[in-house]
């Protein structure tokens, strides 16, 4: 009979514990930090903004996934969410409306965020620049909110390429957006909510045809569109 001392048994138990811990950790795949390329893109985006209230002051540490408004995938660490909504929007008509990020145009460094599915830029100030057509190549987008962000010009038909989109808000509180051709709206197979309030549809040729094609359209959204029809 093999005699084992208490010390030997303890030794075995510790080894077992360490092995289990190692298996547990590899299974969880706890990766920290963020992807360097995406971090650089966010820094470039930050540099394109004037940020008078210093909202993006947390955007300077190594792990960009912990930055204000940024959320990453649990394991792949890709940036999935960028929420830069200006929370001051309730004061849109008062002197408290100062938390806006301001930029002459939306920076194309966003394109580096290949897995971005949620983008909220509402109530910031893009100084009457056009909505950039490059947004149409961000195929992972499910949520796009450009409400009250002072964009102007014709809404680019390239947005019709965003086939995963569930929510699109191009409410033109400020700025003066127009749509000349709505056929691309019929491309949105997953769209649940569309807000085009205040968008100038007076030159839109195919409004009713586009919505006939989109049979699953919500009445609420349709109403919003009709209210703005001139
Ligand atoms: C762990 O995460 C990496 C991404 O950094 C991924 O390539 C890999 O497949 C993951 N492994 C597991 C077991 O989930
Ligand atoms: C990120 O995007 C790549 C390429 O588009 C894709 O292969 C991958 O599955 C995506 N990962 C996540 C978590 O969405
Ligand atoms: C929109 O941008 C223009 C041009 O920079 C500016 O004059 C105007 O005040 C902006 N609108 C708002 C509501 O900030
Ligand atoms: C839209 O998608 C088509 C087909 O995938 C592609 O050829 C075209 O370049 C895309 N346009 C934009 C603006 O991304
Ligand atoms: C509609 O979607 C298809 C496939 O994604 C794309 O090839 C086409 O260019 C889109 N049409 C418009 C008007 O965006
Ligand atoms: C809408 O656009 C048309 C044509 O560009 C223009 O004549 C009209 O004044 C615009 N309406 C508003 C409310 O801006």
From TrEMBL:
* Pfam families (alphabetical): LRR_1 (PF00560), LRRNT_2 (PF08263)
Q: What molecular functions are annotated in GO for this chain?
A: protein serine/threonine kinase activity
Q: What class of enzyme is it?
A: transferase
InterPro entries hit by this protein: Leu-rich_rpt, LRR_dom_sf, LRR_N_plant-typ, RLP23-like
Task: Provide the alphabetized UniProt keywords.
Answer: Glycoprotein, Kinase, Leucine-rich repeat, Membrane, Repeat, Serine/threonine-protein kinase, Signal, Transferase, Transmembrane, Transmembrane helix
Q: Which GO terms describe its cellular component?
A: membrane
Record carries keyword Lipid metabolism: no
Q: Where does the record place the Leucine-rich repeat-containing N-terminal plant-type domain?
A: 37-72
Q: Where does it reside?
A: Membrane
Report the membrane topology from the UniProt record: Single-pass type I membrane protein
| Signal peptide residues on this chain, from the entry's feature table | 1-27
**Could you say which EC number(s) this protein's record lists?**
2.7.11.1
Q: Does the keyword Glycoprotein apply?
A: yes
The protein's predominant localisation is membrane
Protein name per Swiss-Prot or TrEMBL: Non-specific serine/threonine protein kinase
- The species this protein was found in: Handroanthus impetiginosus
- Phylogenetic lineage: Eukaryota, Viridiplantae, Streptophyta, Embryophyta, Tracheophyta
């Amino acid at each position: 009979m093999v005699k084992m001392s208490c010390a030997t048994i303890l030794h075995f138990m510790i080894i077992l514990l360490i092995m289990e811990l190692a298996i547990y950790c590899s299974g969880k795949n706890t990766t920290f930090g963020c992807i360097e390329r995406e971090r650089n893109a966010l820094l470039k985006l930050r540099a394109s903004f004037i940020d008078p209230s210093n909202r993006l002051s947390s955007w300077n540490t190594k792990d960009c996934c912990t930055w204000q408004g940024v959320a990453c995938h649990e394991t792949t660490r890709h940036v999935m969410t960028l929420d830069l909504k200006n929370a001051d929007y309730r004061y849109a008509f008062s002197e408290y409306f100062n938390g806006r990020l301001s930029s002459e145009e939306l920076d194309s460094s966003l394109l580096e965020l290949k897995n971005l599915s949620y983008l909220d830029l509402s109530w910031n100030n893009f100084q009457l620049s056009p909505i950039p057509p490059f947004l149409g190549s961000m195929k992972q987008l499910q949520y796009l909110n450009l409400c009250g962000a002072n964009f102007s010009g014709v809404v680019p038909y390239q947005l019709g390429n965003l086939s995963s989109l569930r929510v699109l808000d191009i409410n033109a509180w400020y700025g003066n957006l127009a749509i000349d051709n709505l056929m691309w709206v019929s491309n949105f197979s997953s769209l649940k909510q569309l807000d085009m309030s205040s968008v100038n549809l007076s030159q839109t040729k195919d409004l009713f045809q586009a919505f006939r094609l989109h049979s699953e359209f919500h009445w609420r959204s349709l109403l919003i569109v009709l209210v703005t029809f001139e």
